Amino acid sequence: MDFPAAANALGTLGAVCWSVQLIPQIVVNYRRHYTTGLQPSMMMLWAWAGVPLGVYNIVEEFNVALRIQPQILTFLSLVTWIQCYYCQRKWTVVRSLLVVVPIAVAMASISGGTDPVLLAAGVLRHYWDISMHRTVRGISFIFVGIDAAGDLFSLLSVFFQPRLDILGMVIYGPELVLWLGVFACGGYYNLLPWIREKWFADQDQARHSRSPDLDIVSSTHAGSASGHIVLHDMPSSTSVFSTASRGSAGLRPRAVASLRRSSDEQRETSVHTTP
Predict the structure, then answer these.
(1) Measured at the alpha carbon of residue 114, what is the angle toward residues 107 and 55, in degrees to the nearest 5?
(2) H helix intervals, 134-275
(3) With 166 labelled, which of 44, 91, 93, 259 sits at a CA distance of 20 to 30 A?
(4) What is the pLDDT of residues 217-236, one digit of tens each?
């Protein structure tokens, strides 16, 4: 299909997505000061993929947005790659620059046709990490979403070029499918366990927040339903009228007086019956 306006618009959207997709990941790495789970090999493969991709887009006379997109991809990939060594392996800034600058210069002087393989291989490296650890770790889902959107817009842009370019479809299509798979893994290994944990936590909180009176009432009903008499250790109803104990500490005053009269009568009886 020959729709230059649609091709330029979609290509621009794809270029914008691919220009900023790694920025959220770079910011996350900077704030956390660690890159555990983020694969530096993926970032290096992406950096190399941008070199032939840029040459290809220029030779095929794609729109301007698609021509500058690979260069931005290479630059951001190199920044993310060196972050892995700076944060995780504690490289100094000087050492990091001494390593990354010559690589960038070499990339500027090399071209080829292996960009689809390198892009797909970079994402596949994360599949290996997911299979080993049963979780999607280290990678920002914002970055994944933006990059997948860039693949989608760029792929649609190819369809609106004057002629359908098969190689362009091969460049963007496989990576889009692989990113959708990463999203699916994140939903299964990360999102579902988080939802289950939150649901059980809410259930426990609701169970422990019930009123103690409700527990007493429920236990009373349970006792009545079973036909048993439930005895409670409660003070006597006459305790309001009690006075200080006399004689025996545990007896009421009337009981003490009655015992005294009984003992006196017994003594009198024994005196009268004695010969």
Answers:
(1) 55
(2) 141-159, 166-186, 192-208, 212-226, 253-272
(3) 44
(4) 455 544 444 444 444 444 44
